[in-house]
């Protein structure tokens, strides 16, 4: 039996004693494409970082392929795309250098980059349509292009499962289409994807399950909530029917 | 220049200048990428306590500076991780403590005049013993960067991604801090503890005006570092001025030139004024 890529049982996270996530039970099986949705501050980014073991749980248990994050060694199976407004660092780095760094979990310390490394980087660059920008400084690209570079970095590592924090935030329509195409290929290859999104846009047909967070709890799980009729109108305040009555909140 | 090389002390100074010119900008590139440009200054202040202790106990100020600055680098890194708020105040306390301790110990030893050569550098007084230490440290720094460079690049770019790639983040963070401490001791004799950080930061700042990538930045920064260190030494001997500040001012001059050249390059690249 194939191990489950991600699972969180009774997950709770606190920042300075303030609970940010409460009672989260979430299991992502191999091949699923899960969208984590919710309003700002609902705990979406915290949830996926807890899923990866990047932040400590104050209660509950996280497992990556059946192993707690602290003892997990098979990081090459996981590709993480963080939410970044811009590619970090105070020194310029070329697009190729950033993408090539995604191979790190597959490289050993004393061996130089191999031909296989270079081929994987080439494939990742073309998958996001950035092959012609490989020698440009990543910092000089537009937000959407930088996001594509960060996705290419994860692709270069050839992981089985992807975790993407708001891959579509601040991304122009063309980059969104490119991203949807990349994601379609990944799904076709049976990869697992967990992504945080405000709006699904062109990604929507690919999502197999969506999880809606509100104030640190999962309030809805199922097929993606598709705005219809009045709810689809711009400016409509969407009050979710599953929200608990005691804490009504806007999902917008 | 050639006939100057017949002097032993100048040969040693020249070798030290080349080593410093290579090691400081190479480490500096990672530190600037990690947005810790002032780390070298902090370690330099702490290293002064080591120098003072060395003078006081009549042992090697270089070795004690090495030990104390390595411990200081570890302390800085631990403070950076542990304290989310108020970390800068804790760091400031460490820096002032290091500076005050150094001056006090040097005073107690009666060798305050000696302290000046560590504060502002005295590359022409490098002893053969010092040179061996400096050479060993410079080689260690280059080897560390060659072996761990790929991992340090990921760490300095994005710590969270480094963790999600399974890298030993805590070990690498300590490694880069301690490597910076080694570099501070290498550069101490050339430009002095108060100007150490300049050789870690200014060549990098100059290089990134001209480069588009990380590797290229390290390469150009090292060239700038060696040119500034050797050139500054030469000028200072030629016109009889202090070498430390001459080296740093030369590096700054290269930086200003690079800013102008970088503008021209970008203008030509984009085709807009």
Automatic annotation (TrEMBL), chain B:
<feature type="transmembrane region" description="Helical">
    <location>
        <begin position="190"/>
        <end position="207"/>
    </location>
</feature>
<feature type="transmembrane region" description="Helical">
    <location>
        <begin position="131"/>
        <end position="155"/>
    </location>
</feature>
<feature type="transmembrane region" description="Helical">
    <location>
        <begin position="62"/>
        <end position="79"/>
    </location>
</feature>
<keyword id="KW-0813">Transport</keyword>
<feature type="transmembrane region" description="Helical">
    <location>
        <begin position="214"/>
        <end position="235"/>
    </location>
</feature>
<keyword id="KW-0472">Membrane</keyword>
<feature type="transmembrane region" description="Helical">
    <location>
        <begin position="12"/>
        <end position="31"/>
    </location>
</feature>
<protein>
    <submittedName>
        <fullName>Metal ABC transporter permease</fullName>
    </submittedName>
</protein>
<feature type="transmembrane region" description="Helical">
    <location>
        <begin position="167"/>
        <end position="184"/>
    </location>
</feature>
<dbReference type="Pfam" id="PF00950">
    <property type="entry name" value="ABC-3"/>
</dbReference>
<comment type="similarity">
    <text>Belongs to the ABC-3 integral membrane protein family.</text>
</comment>
<feature type="transmembrane region" description="Helical">
    <location>
        <begin position="247"/>
        <end position="265"/>
    </location>
</feature>
<dbReference type="InterPro" id="IPR037294">
    <property type="entry name" value="ABC_BtuC-like"/>
</dbReference>
<keyword id="KW-1133">Transmembrane helix</keyword>
<dbReference type="InterPro" id="IPR001626">
    <property type="entry name" value="ABC_TroCD"/>
</dbReference>
<feature type="transmembrane region" description="Helical">
    <location>
        <begin position="91"/>
        <end position="111"/>
    </location>
</feature>
<keyword id="KW-0812">Transmembrane</keyword>
